[in-house]
Amino acid sequence: MEGLAINVTLLVVLVGLMYFTVVRPQQKMRKERQEMLDNLKVGDKIVTIGGIYGKITTLKEDVMQLEVAPNMVLKMQRAAVSFVEVDEKKEKQKEK
């Protein structure tokens, strides 16, 4: 019986360890990404998952238009955004 109790305890510890090292950080990253996608706005400079740089010109529920060059606009899904480029000038003004 003692061996069974030790095995069950080890199993519980392993499951807890896996939760805190794998599942929880993944949930946090998913939540941060969803917040980033929800906070997109027209005029944001972004980079897509495919590496395309551009500026959002139109933004609807799941679709956006991305200006990648003068008079060249691509229609893309909102989920294609990898990250929003940070304007260093605006960041410095916010810090002041």
Spatial strand arrangement across the major sheet: 4-3-2-1-5
Helix content: 40-55%
How would you spell out the order of helices and strands?
HEEEEEH
Domain tally: 2
In CATH, the topology of the largest domain is named SH3 type barrels
Strand content: 25-35%
**Top CATH class of the largest domain:** Mainly Beta
The number of helices is 2
Q: At CATH's second level, what is the architecture of the largest domain? A: Roll
Care to describe what's here?
This protein is of the alpha+beta class and 96 residues long. The chain folds into two domains: 1-39; 41-85, SH3 type barrels (Roll), CATH 2.30.30. The chain contains two helices and five strands. It has helices at 2-38, 88-95, and strands at 45-48, 53-59, 63-69, 72-77, 81-84. The chain has a five-stranded antiparallel sheet with strand order 4-3-2-1-5, with no helix packed on it. The radius of gyration is 22 Å and the shape is elongated. The mean pLDDT is 89.
Provide a brief overview of the structure:
The protein is α+β, with helices and mostly antiparallel strands. It is built from 2 helices and 5 strands, in the order αβββββα.
List descriptors.
96 residues; SH3 type barrels; 2 domains; 5-stranded antiparallel β-sheet
Any chance you could write out the topology, listing elements then pairs?
Blueprint: H1 2-38, E1 45-48, E2 53-59, E3 63-69, E4 72-77, E5 81-84, H2 88-95
Antiparallel strand pairs: 1-2, 1-5, 2-3, 3-4
